[in-house]
Structure to design on (164 residues):
């Protein structure tokens, strides 16, 4: 009789304690989890050139962008995903490396702002704005000079955007 009553009670108590520890994060070092705060890495292709991109979909991810980075890997960048027919503006707030800003609509590059330089020590109101030249659905930022180096220009097709 002791076993039939107390064992289930002990099991329920152990379960409650385990759930409590999980909720407090006390068991996190024993459980492998993915970092949900980081952007997701994907691969896109332009002119047969593979580019590893971090995807920025949320307002928070887009606002942070590539700011406060001291470097950017050679064949990498960040792709900003927007609603169809958007006309966003970009700036170089807290950006430390020159960038090419590539404007994309319907899987085609519509324009490129090349070698956009950082503007350190400027107030937000003094930073140059780079508005979309037309309606776009993606913006790709890569190292300054990347477009020229790889023959990327307006009219080039961007592949693998559908799974972003």
């Amino acid at each position: 009789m002791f076993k039939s009553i107390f064992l289930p009670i002990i099991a329920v108590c152990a379960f409650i304690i385990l759930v409590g520890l999980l909720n407090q994060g006390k068991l996190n070092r024993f459980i492998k989890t993915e970092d949900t705060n980081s952007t997701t890495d994907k691969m896109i292709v332009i002119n047969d050139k593979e580019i590893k991109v971090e995807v920025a979909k949320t307002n928070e991810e887009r606002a942070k962008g590539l700011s406060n980075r001291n470097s950017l890997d050679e064949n990498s960048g960040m792709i900003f995903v927007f609603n169809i027919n958007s006309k966003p503006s970009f700036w170089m707030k807290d950006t430390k490396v020159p960038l090419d800003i590539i404007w994309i609509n319907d899987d085609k590059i519509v324009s490129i702002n090349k070698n956009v330089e950082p503007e350190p020590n400027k107030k937000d109101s003094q930073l140059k704005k780079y508005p979309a030249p037309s309606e776009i659905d993606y913006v790709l930022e890569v190292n300054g000079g990347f477009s020229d180096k790889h023959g990327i220009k307006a009219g080039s097709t961007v592949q693998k955007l559908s799974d972003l």
